[in-house]
């Protein structure tokens, strides 16, 4: 385990990452593949927590544009994150990975309520913890929730698994000449409005001096590589 740069991390995954080739919803094969990546890292004794978005099921801002009041739309999005968390929990447990889901909105029938000390203890006992329902408050995204939980768990790094292998100066899907950054400062991300994560999430990570590593969640072995300081990614720090 000494070969790893980071021993306790929070992995943020977008809801879209769970769709696979589907237009919406949860692709079970994709969930199992991502669970396999998490399980492989967990097997080596590393501590990992997850926050999963809800874009594959429900988007609060899009719903607001359709006429649903913003706070209500955000709460609906939080409930969707619980569905994604339970799907990931099921996939991890099929790999014999002991997993707990903790929700910021109490719903004892399906998962635990979020309690920081209990979550820390779960991680110390070698369990994967999946944080659901965002921060439990409207107007905050799952990016901000991930940053908050990473700080509360005293994580060594916040890993953001995306559709591409880092942060680019343009969308690589639209611009073949887009350049990937190997390293960025928190200040540059904020001042250039690079849209890596919400500004509040970046500011929280800067305040707590927790590095952010952006990498592709679809690359086999990518999670293990970035935790060991290898692989293709963008490191955001001081």
Q: Can you tell me the CATH superfamily?
A: Acetylglutamate kinase-like
End-to-end Cα distance, whole Å, is: 26 Å
Number of helices: 8
What value does the Rg take, in angstroms?
17 Å
Secondary structure layout:
Layout: E1 8-13, H1 28-42, E2 47-52, H2 60-65, H3 70-94, E3 99-103, E4 112-113, H4 116-124, E5 128-132, H5 142-152, E6 157-162, E7 167-168, E8 180-181, E9 183-185, H6 186-191, H7 199-207, E10 212-216, H8 222-227, E11 234-237
Parallel strand pairs: 1-2, 1-6, 2-5, 3-4, 3-5, 6-10, 9-11
Antiparallel strand pairs: 7-8, 10-11
Helix pairs in contact: 1-3, 5-7
Report what the structure shows.
This protein is α/β, with parallel strands linked by helices and 238 residues long. The protein has one domain: Acetylglutamate kinase-like (Carbamate kinase, 3-Layer(aba) Sandwich), CATH 3.40.1160.10. Helix content is 37%, strand content 19%. The protein has helices at 28-42, 60-65, 70-94, 116-124, 142-152, 186-191, 199-207, 222-227; strands at residues 8-13, 47-52, 99-103, 112-113, 128-132, 157-162, 167-168, 180-181, 183-185, 212-216, 234-237. The strands form two sheets. Strands 4-3-5-2-1-6-10-11-9 form a nine-stranded mixed beta sheet, sandwiched between helices. Strands 7-8 form a two-stranded antiparallel ribbon. Helix 1 (28-42) links the parallel strand 1 and strand 2 (47-52). Helix 5 (142-152) packs parallel to helix 7. The protein is globular, with a radius of gyration of 17 Å. The chain starts with 7 loop residues before the first strand and ends with a strand.
